[in-house]
TrEMBL record:
<dbReference type="InterPro" id="IPR016181">
    <property type="entry name" value="Acyl_CoA_acyltransferase"/>
</dbReference>
<feature type="domain" description="N-acetyltransferase">
    <location>
        <begin position="27"/>
        <end position="170"/>
    </location>
</feature>
<protein>
    <submittedName>
        <fullName>Mycothiol synthase</fullName>
    </submittedName>
</protein>
<dbReference type="GO" id="GO:0016747">
    <property type="term" value="F:acyltransferase activity, transferring groups other than amino-acyl groups"/>
</dbReference>
<dbReference type="InterPro" id="IPR000182">
    <property type="entry name" value="GNAT_dom"/>
</dbReference>
<dbReference type="Pfam" id="PF00583">
    <property type="entry name" value="Acetyltransf_1"/>
</dbReference>
Amino acid sequence: MRDERSKLVMKKDTLADLPQLNIPEGYSLRSFQSGDVTEWEHVIRISFAREIAFGDKIGFQPPFLPEKILFLCYQGLAVATAVAWEKEDRDINCGYLHMVGALPGHSGKGLGYTIALAALHRMRDEGKQAALLETDDFRLPAIAIYLRLGFVPLFMEDGHSGRWEKVFNQLMS
């Protein structure tokens, strides 16, 4: 059953302090190419444990720019993805880290961190100065990565304080 609560929001105030991007040995980084819809949907389906149509989240959303959709690949197959997105209703100097996922068969290799960092580098290269993201309470491994990358929680609604407290307690246990 899907959690229908509002998303938790995190922000990284500056992209000037990004660490160097190091791709793990045996993996390669590339942007979206023609025919990647199925691979993107596979990585996201496994990562989010539900069907998410590429067209609904990325392909039909302006601006669709293939270079903003990144993949880490192993032996030619996509095993992690993240999108260096923009939200039309947001500050043009602030990027939006979107749809970060990695296949569990490759866990423990830092792929979630690497692909999220690659998307932040893309944003910085495009002139973005900060980044936002939205996440769910149960995505604890992803939240740990975002914290490691320097994102901090934003308290957008009254209930967010308690939800963040619960998340931090779970991360500490």
